[in-house]
CP family cyanate transporter-like MFS transporter
Amino acid sequence: MTAQRRTPDSTLLVLLVAVVLSAFSLRTAVTSITPLLDRVSDDIRFGTGGASVLGMVPTLMFSLAGIVTPRLVRRFGLEHVALTAMVLAALGLLTRSFSTNVPALLLTSACALAGMGIGNVVIPPVIQRFFPERVAVLSTAYITVLQVGTLVPPLVAVPLSQAHGWRISLGVWAIAAIAAIVPWLVAILRRPGSDPHAVAPAHTTGRVWRSPVAWSLALMFGCTSLNTYAMFTWLPKILTGAGHDAAFGGTMVSLFAAVGLLSALFAPQLAARLSNPAPIVVGSVVAFAIGFAGLLWAPDTATVLWVIAAGLGPTTFPLALTLINLRTRTAAGSSALSGFSQGVGYLIACAGPLLFGLLHDATGGWGVPFAFLAVTVGVILVAGLRVSRPDMLEDTWG
């Protein structure tokens, strides 16, 4: 019996609204602050090292969430864990705007990002369990809204800060997370008693870390995220160093994310139609190479073109999220693969903002940092070609 037959249509609609609202809130804590780092630093006093650590917090919390979320899902069920994710996100976003020192800023950011990390992991299994016949369509919707929630904050961060101060500019995004709490509550209240949708206990699943599918997806996901968060953190600095102003830097971060929205519209659908989506991987690697070369050698010329190319590079991100469901047969497999690939992947991604900044400080230029990113793009190519093969997790994790 499918999840659709067990679950009333009205509840499915509520769950769909919950997925969409949650998706919007899964990156707001990241991209709302990067255009404001200089302004926040003026009040809280942190330098390049502090910015590097702050840039590493998202991937670290997403990695920890990837490790613990499958266990939470097995214990409490999908909806309860998703609700908890949005509560943590709302609480962290709201309290971060009141930070008066670096430890408070890091702690509240970690709270918000822990919630968003849990949401990253739990949403794909929600789609797999409740909408198994619409995985490609709803994956497209989920990733598209996620990208919208990524690109809007940096676009409005500086104008909001200029009009109302950086605290309002950071705190306003708690409203979206609070809105996402409501449909999860409704879905839970409509189903009294214990959650029958908890993913199968651990003993019924294989050992995900034994699967080449899992490791390939984790490496592709991790190195894609490493490059993405390095750009989120340092693109404004690269551009202001080339003579552009801070508002332009924020606009380019938003453009970088907006191009990801374009990727989100076609990558899941194309991946669902191709038995082997290797062309998407190759195209992403070529786009990364063009964008990074332009930003390194001509950041003050054709800047928009380089940012668009670099923004097409992370097309392997929506591809990875889609493959979580396309390379599994069950919600248990989806949850395990989602947790493993994002846990390991975001742990790898932690190195992105930190090493990129440290290499820049050590060398005084951007050549060595971009060389580091080039190596990771090579890993995306190799791992992406492997996970593109039509192998299922459940056939390889024994």
User: Anything to note?
Assistant: The two ends are 26 Å apart (CA to CA).
